[in-house]
Each structure stands twice: as structure tokens, then as C-alpha cells.
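Justification of computing resources. Each target in the renewal requires a structure prediction run like the one illustrated here; the chain below, 1327 residues long, is used simply to show the kind of job we budget for.
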Amino acid sequence: PWSAKAPKKYHKNCKMSKIEKMSILGVRSFGVEDKDKQVISFFSPLTVLVGPNGAGKTTIIECLKYITTGDFPPGSKGNTFVHDPKVAHETDVRAQIRLQFRDVNGELIAVQRSMLCTQKGKKSEFKTLEGVITRMKHGEKVSLSSKCAEIDREMITALGVSKAVLINVIFCHQEESNWPLSEGKALKQKFDEIFSATRYIKVLETLRQLRLKQGQRVKECQMELKYLKQNKEKSQEIQELLSTKESQLAASKDNVQSIESQIEPLENHLMDIDTNLGKVMKLDNDIKALDSRKKQMEEDNHELQEKMEQVFQGTDEQLREMYQNHQRTVREKERRLNDCQRELERANRECQRLNRQKSELLVEQGRLQLQADRHQQNIKTRDSYVKALASYLEMDGYDRTPFSERQLQSFNAQVKERQEKDLEALNQVMRDFQERETLKQNAIDEIRDKKTGLERTIDLKMDLQNKKQQELRSVKSDLQKLEGSSDRLQELEQELLKAEHELQSAVESSTVDTLKADVLELQREKGELDRAQRKLDQEMEQLNAHTMARTQMEMLKKDKADKEEQVRKIKSRHQDELGSLLGYFPNKRQLEDWIHAKNKEINHTRDKLYKLTKDLASKEQNKNHISTEIKRKEQQLANYEEKLFEVCGSQDFESDLSKLQDDIEKNSKQRAMLAGATAVYTQFISQLTEENEPCCPVCQRMFPSEAELQDVINDMQSKLRLVPDKLKNTEQDLKRKQKKRDDMMGLKPIRQTVSELQEKELPELRNKLQSVNREIERLKSDIEEQETLLATQMSEEETAKACLQDISLMDRYQMDLKDVERKIAQQATKLQGVDLSRTVQQVNQEKQEAQHKLDTTSSKIELKRKLIQDQQDQIQFLKSSVNETLSEKLQISSNMQRQQQLEEQCIEVSTEIQSLHREIQEAKEQASPLVAALEKLQQEKHDLSERRKLKHEEGLEKINAIKEKVRNINACEREFEKYVKEGKDEYKEQKEAELQETNTQLHEAEKQREKIQKEMGNIRQDIDTQKIQERGLQDNLTLRKRIEELQEVSEKRKALMKEMGEMQVMQLRSERREVDNKIEELKKNRSLAMGRQKGFEEEILRFRKELREEQYRDAEEKFREKMIVMRTTELANKDLDIYYKTLDQAIMKFHSMKMEEINKIVRDLWRSTYRGQDIEYVEIRSDVDENVSANVKRRTYNYRVVMVKGDTALDMRGRCSAGQKVLASLIIRLALAETFCLNCGILALDEPTTNLDRENIESLAHALVEIIKSRSRQRNFQLLVITHDEDFVELLGRSEYVEHFYRIKKNIEQCSEIVKSSVASLNSYLH
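Resulting C-alpha cells:
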């Protein structure tokens, strides 16, 4: 409490923060060196700072404000807040502010903020450094930097007040100290921040906006539900139509399956008929082929008889016997020829074998010769190795090579003996070195054990010494704590007497009984006010009945206007569409009739389209049949042409056949010529060899010499040998061509069929297909035209259906308008004759006044009860203070008795520490020489190890060199022994003998091969002569065989003619036509059924597509979800309305209570301080500004400070003097601190006497002393006064609460200094 007349509950245990000390370095005029750091400790309850202008007094307030809030002084940036680098003659100036205080829980906290200002040229740069908050938790310091915690937030929490109160009330800057009389907007902002009302107003605004938004959402949900219900009903209707069409589709599919089951047996029967007709065609083709073959065979027999030189007149058996004899003779010759061929092959293989054997023997001979040369080289290498090793080992008798076996054995024995001696010598040296190293290691281990024992002793004693030192520090600490106990004991005795006196005074001055009587009187007044309030509530209920009727009338009129607007919007939205479709704007019934008529047109168009589609399907089926027939005929034509091409080699059958006949005649003539050439050449050769004087058989010319004659004979003989082969080739060629001719004659019926297909059947089918295609194109064009018409009709129907919902809605609106007009008439009847002279506003105003009186009475009752509780708490607090002081006094007395015991313990522990120190030093002195001896022995051992390794490596190197040379000699010995043991010399001589024998066998085999070749030539000549005679016999056999084949062909033709006559061809063709007509009729019916089925499928797809549309998909679920949303939103909106009203009433109540409390304190302080007679008191007025409209209901407060004289209240702004302005601002700050600083008892006043006259200064000093006196019971109360008026300080010093004050001044370096002074020195200084 800041007023002596309004004490409140403050005692020792209340949670209030308190500042203890602050240090300043490098801020404004405070120096930047460590020696310039100034520390100020804050007294309780009053701290006074005195100094001339410019000394740095206000800087202390600015530092407090900055350290607690982080805000710089008004109109100041960071670089002007820090000491100027140019004045300090430094580039960088670091500023630091540290504050030590206790938070609302009484815990000690230290906070530090640092800044850095850097001068760069003419500009200076400012930077805020890391801030630190330090707390004591469980006896340890815990620091939080600005990187892990927000210092401003931490400070506000620790001090227990908001930032607005810190800035505008507690640490208000001198330049802003008159803010309570600033202009309206700024004043409103300040008060809103102090009251913390901004966030609650934002909550109210958010609730209001949310409530409006939710109300709008409910209306939207209602509109959407109307359409969703229509969509749900339409979806159910479409679903029923879909089920009907699906059942019709299933029946149509059953009909198609029935027709297909009738078509299948007819098609099978048709295939059987086609198979029989195919057989008939095949028989006809076979007969034609046989006729052609018979004719060709007759011609071939005639040609063969003409080419034959002699026709055999005997029987077939004689002809075959003669032919077989010729064949046996030829086979015997050929058999002998084959035997000779095999003998020749055996001779060739023998020659090849002997040649391979010869090559292998030559290779083996070369390999053996190479091994013999290598053997001699090994002997030379071994002897050189022996000689070199003997020289290395200085052994005699091994200078001349080659060495004998005895010399080599002696050499090996000597070398082995030498190796054993060298190895033994090396082992002996190693053993000597090992013994010396063992001795050294034993000496090292002995010294190391001694050194380790001393070190362990030193460690143990040092640990014991550290423990004793820790014990000594603990004892000294306890003694140090007990040093000031006697002084503290005297202080506690004085405090105990003072506390007991205050407790007795408080008990005597208690007014609890009087306050309780006042409370009973106020409760009686409250009961009367409650009864008046209930009476006004009843009157309000009666008025609300008529008000409800008028409100309903207004709502009905508004509803009527809304519905008329909706009707107008619907008409304007669909006027153009419906006007173009109907020519006028219809109602729901007219539009439904038009849609029904349009639906009939659509169904008619669909039927027409279905009929065209059915015709198109029939034509398509016919087209597919014709196309299949064309493909079959074309495939048949391709197969026949392929057969003709395979036989003829081209497509020109007639020219190929004629050319083949010419080739056959040429081959026949060539065969006859070759058959005659054999006899002619034989006769010519006989003539030339038998006659004594031979001449040319053709020109009768005599041969001039025997050589020329022999040349002619040889030439004829060579030609005669070639004739059989040529004759054989000619006959084979003739047979091949005759076979091809027979095949081509068999293909003549196929050629005729190909001509019919190309010239008649295929062109007719293609013309028929073109006609069907033209018909299909015409049907497609008609279908497209009908589909376009259908799409147009359906589009118009869809447009009308889309409008139907709005037209239905418009009809409902019109019906609702009639209902609303009827209700308006009813409400008008109810309101007739009603007297409304007393309005709801008047009753509401009286109700508010009564409520205000009721609240005032309740506040007074609460205040009286609070005063009773405060006095009781104060008495209890004083009793607790007495008990605590007594307890602390007893504790100090007990601790003083332990002081002598602790001093004796301190001496004893110090003696033990000195003894341990001496023992440790002695052990270290004993260990020092052992270290040097240990290092010396370790070095000697290391030298011995290095020498042992060197000797060992040298000995091993020598032994290994000898071993390597011995290994080389042994390797050569092994190669030598291996060569001798394998007998390579004898094996070489054996292979040379085998080579000589193989050469002899090869010569004999080559002679035998030449003999066989000569015999084979004679046999071939005899076989050629026999084959010419065999050819004539073969032709006779062929002629007789062809005659038999001709008879077989004639008999086969007769059989085929008989079979064809039994097939009844005409009856089969007639039956085929009947079956084909039946199948065509069934397929036509199936096409019609499939057309209908397609129409059903299209309608089903259309219905399913409609069901998949956004408006019908999940229509029922959407309707249910939207209904749930609407109902829940309505419930939530009602809750929001309750929350809004409750919070608004709570804010109003809090605001009125606080403003009443503030104004009461302001009036009391003004009356006790202000000495003028022109103003009775001042107060803060908060006028409610209500902005009420259809969608906005928000309450705000406009603040102003008024001065009251009698019944007149005037705004102080612009009317008061400077002194009155300062005093009013100061009093308002005191009242705000009294109201809002319940957890923080700090207040700083900067130059409070500015513009005040002496009388008001004295009254202000008296008021401050009274405030301090009333708050003296609060231990954390702190008032900080900064002034240059030393008279004002002297007035304050007259009280018992000021013993010292701080003087702020500039030193020689013009840096601010803080000097603590006593009030007594101030009195002497003044006088």
C-alpha cells in the first residue's frame, strides 16, 4: 500500500521482489575503466540520490529500466546509451550493467546485460552482447544465457509485474513522467497495457468473429441441406431405373444365347455339306488330272520308242535276265574296283603312318641331343661351385677340374664339419650375451621395486595431507562464521524488544469489532438492494414479452425481404435459359410438363437411333460375312497360285508348259545322239586299229605318220570314255523334266479354278462388299444425325432439370412468403393496443444502477472483511517475527559454545599437515638417486641387446652363405645323378636305329601304292563299256513299265467317275442353300437382339454415369453428414455466446473494481498532498464506448484525467498548471503502483519536485514519509527518490527512515561517481 489511509495485507511471508545492488560501467557519463565501475546498494524502505544537473542521476533509473525490461530510454538508441568512444579515446567501448535482486519467492538472482559500441570513421556501430541470469539452486550457481532463455520474460516473471507496469509506473523516465495527462489515444494505449486488457479484448473479438462465422455456416448448411435432400431423392429414383434396365439387359442376353444355340447345329450341318461338296470338287479335279496324265504318258511312250535303237522282242523274263547279267558283270568290276580302292587307302594310311613315325623319331632325337648337352653343362657348373666354395673356406686340393667322385665325397664331409663348428661358436656367443643381460635385468628390477615403494608411500601421504587440508579449511570456515556472532546477538536482542513493542501496539490499536459491526449493516443494505433488483427483473420479463413480439415482427419482415431477394436472384439467374427454351418464365408445374414432353421426344429419338443401330449391326454382320468369304477365296487363290508357282516357277502356266515340252524334245534327241555315238566311236576305233593302211573314217584321208594316227585313236577313246557319264546325266535331266511335265498336267484343273476365282467369283464378292459399305456409311450418317439431335435434346433437358431445383426452391420461397405475410398480420394484431410508455431501455438503466449499488455494497463488505483479515494477519505476522528472532538468538548462543573446540581442532590438524609434508619431502629425496641409477642400468642393458643382435646377424649371414653355396652344388649333383640313373645315352642310340628302319619301310609302301593305282585305271575302262550296253536294256524295261502304268491310270479314272456319279451333287447344293438361308435369318434376329441389348447397356451406363456425378455420388451420406455438421455447429454457437457474455461481464467487473480502487487512492493522496483550494480532488474517468450494429458488438474504454471542484468535473489536460500536472501524474503513478504492484514493492521517482512550489514540496515530502511509515511493516518495500533539491532531501531526512543517501557527482575526468553520505553531513553541508 502506498497510502497510510488504505493499509493492506503485507507481512514478512508475502511474496514480493526486492533489488539489492547494481553496478554500472560504460553507460552514458559513467567511465569505461574497471576503476570507474560504480556500485550502488539499495536501502529499504527509502533510497535517496542527490546531485546536480548532468551528474548522472537519471542514468540510474535508465539502467534499472534497461536491466529489467531491455528497453532503451525514450528517444535514445543503443549507441547513445553507451559511453561515447570519441570521449573515451577508444575504438571499442564495452558497457555492462549488473543487478542483484531477490525474486517473488525470495531467491537470490543476479542478471547481467552487456553492450558494445565501436567507432568506425564518423559512424558508430552498436551491438548487444550476450546477457546472463544466475540463480542459486541447491547451493550451486545455475546460469542461463540469452541464447537459451528470454531474459526479458525471465525478469518479468522474477519481479512479479508486467512490462507495462515496469516501464510506465515503477521505472518511469523523467521525460515520460507526465504521461497520465497525454492525448487520448496515447493515454488509452498506456492504460490498456497496464490493465492487460488488450489480450482479453482480442479474445472477445475473436469469439465474436467466430460466432458470426459459425452463424453464417449454419445458414449455409441449411441451404445446402435443401439441395442435398433433392439430390438424395433423385439418386434413389435413378437407382430404381438402373435396376429395371439391368433386368431387361439380362433377359436380352438370354435371348441372344438362345439364338446362338440354334445357329451352332445349323453351322455344323453346313460345314458337313461343304465338306461333301469339297470332295466332289476334289474328285472332279482328280479325274481331270488323270485324263491329262494319261495323254501325257501316251505321248512319252511314243517318244521313247522313237529314241530306242532296238526294241527287244523277247519276253520280259528274258529281258530282265539279260539286264541282270549285265548288272552282275558291272557289279563284279565295281566290286574289284572297290577292293582296289580299299587297298589303295590302306597303302596311303601305311605311308602316312610311317611318315608320322619318322617325324616323331626326328623330334625325339633332337630332344635327347639337347639333354646330353645340358648334362655336360651341369658337370662344368658343379665343378665351378665346388672350386669357389673351397676357395671361400680356404680348403686345399680343389684347384683343378674335373673332380672325381672320391674328391667330391671328401669335399662334402669337410664342408659339413665346418658348418657345425661355425654354428656352435655362434650359439656360445649368444649364451654369453644372454647371461650378461639377465644380470642387468635383475639389478633393474631391484631398483624399480624400491622406487615404486617410495612413490606409493608419497601418494598415500599426499592423499592424507589433502584430506587434512580440507578438514582444516572446513574448521576455519566454521570459525569465520562465528566471528560476528556476538554483534549479531546484541542486534537480535534489540530487534526482539522492538518486535514485542510493535505486537503490543498492534493488539491495542485493533478495530476488528467495529469493522464486523459495519459488515452486518452493509449486508442488510445488500439484502434490500437484492429485493429491488428482483422486482426490476420481473418488470423486465413483462416488457420482454412485447419486445419479443416486436422483435419477431422485425425478423419476419427481414425474412420476407430475404426471400423476395432470393426469388429475384433465381429469376435473374435463369431468365435467359428458360426464355430461350420455353419462350416464357414458367413455374414448377409448367417446367415439369415441358421436361416430360422433352423426355418423350428423347425416347422417340432413342428408339429411332436404336432401329438404325440394329440395321447397322445387321449390315456390319453381312459385311463381315462377305469379307470372310473374300478372305477365304483369296486364301484359296493364293494357295493354288503357290502350288502353280512351286511346280512352274512362275505364274505363266501355258508358256511354262510349252517351254518344258521343247526342253524334253531336245533332251530326247541328245540322249539318242549320245547312245549312237558309242557305236560310231567303237566302229571307228576298230577300223583304225585293224586295217593295215588306216585312213580317216569320215574324209578317207590317210594319216602321214603313226604318231598322228595314235593321237586320233587316243582322242576317240577319251571321248568314248566320257559318253556314258554324259548319257547318264542327259537321261536324269530328261526324267526330271518329264516328272515336272506330269505334275503340271495334274495342275490344269487348279489353273481353271484360279481363272474362275480371278475373273468371276472375287470381283462379284468385292462389288457386293462395296454396296454393303455404301449402305453402312449411309446408316452411320443417319445415326450421327440422330445422336446429334439426341445430344441437343438431352442438353436442353439437362438445362431444364438444372433449373428445376431453383424453380422448386423459388416456389417454396413464394409459399414461404405467403406464410410470412400471414404471420406478420398475426403479430400486428397482437401488438394492437399495447402501451409501451415504459421501455426496456429505461428498466435496463434502472437495473444497471441497482446492480452498480449492489456491486458497491459488495465491494465495501469485501473491503471491510479484508481490513479485518489484514489486522488479524498483521498481529499474527508480528507474533511470528518475535518467535523467529528468539529462535535465531538461541541458535547463535549455541554456536558460540563450539568456538573453543574448533580452534583446538584447527591447531591439531595444522600440526599433522606439517608432519606429513616433511615425510613426503624425505621420501622424494630418497627416490631421486634411484631414478638415475635405474636409467643407467636400462641403457647398459639396451647396449648389450644391440651388440647381441649384431653378433647373431653376422654369424647367421656367414652360415647362410655357406648353406646357399652347398645347396647350389647339391642341385647340380641331383641333375647329374638323374641323367645317369635314367640311362639317357642308351635311349638316344636306340631311337637312331628305329629311325633308319622306318625309312626303309616307307620306301616299300610307296611302291605298292603305285601298282594298285595302275590296276584301278584298267577296271574303270571296262565298266564304261558295259554301262553303254546296259542303257539300251534299261530303256526297254522302262517302256514296258510305262505301258502297265497307263493301264492302271485308265482303270483308276473309271473308278473315280463311278464314285462321282453316286455323290448326288445337285441335291447337296440345294440343301446348302436352304441351311444358309436359315442361318442368315437367325443371325438377323440375333443382330436385332444385340442392338436392343446395346441400347440397354447405353442406358445403364448413362444411369451409372449420373450416379457417379458429384451431386448424386454418396448423396445420402452427404445429406446425413451435413445435417450432423449443422446441428453440432448450432450447439457450438450457443456455447460461444455463453462464453462471450461471461468473459465480457468478468472484464467489466474487473475494470470497474480496479478503477474504483485507483480513484480512491488518488483522491486520498491529492487531498493530503495538494495545498491549493481550487481543486478538491482528481480522478481517472473511463468512458464506455459501445459500437453496436447488426454484426458488431464491442465495448472499449476511453480514459481521461479530470479535476473536480464541487459538482463540476473538467479535463485537466490543457487546463492545469505545470505544477498541478506534475503532482497529478505523480499521484496517479503512486495509485497505479498501489493497485498493480502487489508482488513488487519498488517505485522510483525521478525529480518529483519539478515545477512544485515550496508548500507543495513540503506536503509531498510529508505524504511520502506517511507512505513509508505505512509500508514499514513490509520488509521488501523500496522507494527510490532522485532529486537535485537538497531541501527536499532534508525534509525526508527528518524522518527516522533515512540515515544515508547517495551523492552523484563528476570526478576530475568528468565521469560520474556515486558516493554514500549520511543525512547529518547534509545538514552541516546546508548550514
